[in-house]
């Protein structure tokens, strides 16, 4: 697709973006990974993070108290640049807000007796899985991409293929520590300041600044025994998907990838310590390995299910190397066998660097012809939802991940008196092929379907809902109560809608 550019530099960045990615961003990404891995390892081994945590939190409090002494004419946000977060968009509100510097990047404590890990909000999933693996531990829910942070997954949300058992990322968090708008430090859990505890998830930093989280961990094994179940009819796949998700004793991991409206592959998995005789070892994390989603697609050619054994950490981050399937649009030959052997060890580029070097013309192109959305609907509406998505946008592959929503206080209110309700995350990331696709109207059509079927929208992506529609989608009863109870909260922070609606993102 031809895109109008305003300069020669921008033209090169748009038309030959893969050159910039390979020659500049991949080497820079590698250097950053080496440095951050080494730095995190040293800090963890020296146990210096817990000693420094108190000082770092005090500095956050000092900055807020300085704001309190002023005229408080601006609101507060973190000083972390928008290009460093995982949302595709950059937040325009940061230009006018007072920025609070928060350098909270460390794992503070691993308690193998109580099976918890305490960490700061900018700790990443890759950092946690790398640290926990040698100890025989893992998070109960590990969202796929290495670069996702604990803070982002708490203040936003996170889902993974174990979420049909454990729920969303927020459901494995046992305690939050925050600095509030009055400069005070507070901890909250189910038993302490419980209203705040249940209100924090999905709140997008509109109560205070998260400074640490205590998270549940579970015993880990070496491999995942993964079984691939190909389907060529949507109705059969949807039935099988519901069956596996709702079992009384389900597999530990369940997900599916659709490659067309009818054809997809359901995957079920369990942790094991040894490679069995019923399948082969597939080390998908090796630098030369084919992108995982293309390996999954190859199983559509088979008429029967296949079993593989995948190293646990490779499985957790199976979609990282190709950023699900987004990287095929940035480096079209990235899955070529020659490229994988020569440059696969550099992959993937840091998402933050991709955003930092993205010219306005690419942003405009993405506005017109690219979709990144995760919509969450009750699992009984899966088949209907896939048809709606196909008609409105037609983006494949399409990711399907089941997750449990517990009947707890907070913004996710379920329409049942049961303890929980099963939902499915429908993830679409790519170029829409639907006839008549138009970004706003097509997205609005899907949003309307989600609201009408008592679903939710992940807020890292574009939301075109009005404030009233947004409040219909998310229950603000507890949220408003907590906001009203916290001194200076409304002065310091906008409501969630003020940080996530399309008008405040570019």
From TrEMBL:
It catalyses: lanosterol + NADPH + H(+) = 24,25-dihydrolanosterol + NADP(+); 5alpha-cholest-8-en-3beta-ol + NADP(+) = zymosterol + NADPH + H(+). The chain crosses the membrane at residues 16-35. Keywords: Membrane, Oxidoreductase, Peroxisome, Transmembrane, Transmembrane helix. Homodimer. It is found in: Membrane; Peroxisome. The keyword Oxidoreductase applies. InterPro entries: Diminuto-like, FAD-bd_PCMH, FAD-bd_PCMH-like_sf, FAD-bd_PCMH_sub2, Oxid_FAD_bind_N. Residues 44-220 form the FAD-binding PCMH-type domain. SUPFAM superfamilies: FAD-binding/transporter-associated domain-like (SSF56176). It is a single-pass membrane protein. GO terms for molecular function: Delta24(24-1) sterol reductase activity; Delta24-sterol reductase activity; FAD binding. GO terms for cellular component: membrane; peroxisome. The lineage of its organism: Eukaryota, Metazoa, Ecdysozoa, Arthropoda, Hexapoda. This is Delta(24)-sterol reductase. It is an enzyme of class 1 (oxidoreductase). GO terms for biological process: steroid metabolic process. The keyword DNA damage does not apply. It comes from the Eukaryota.
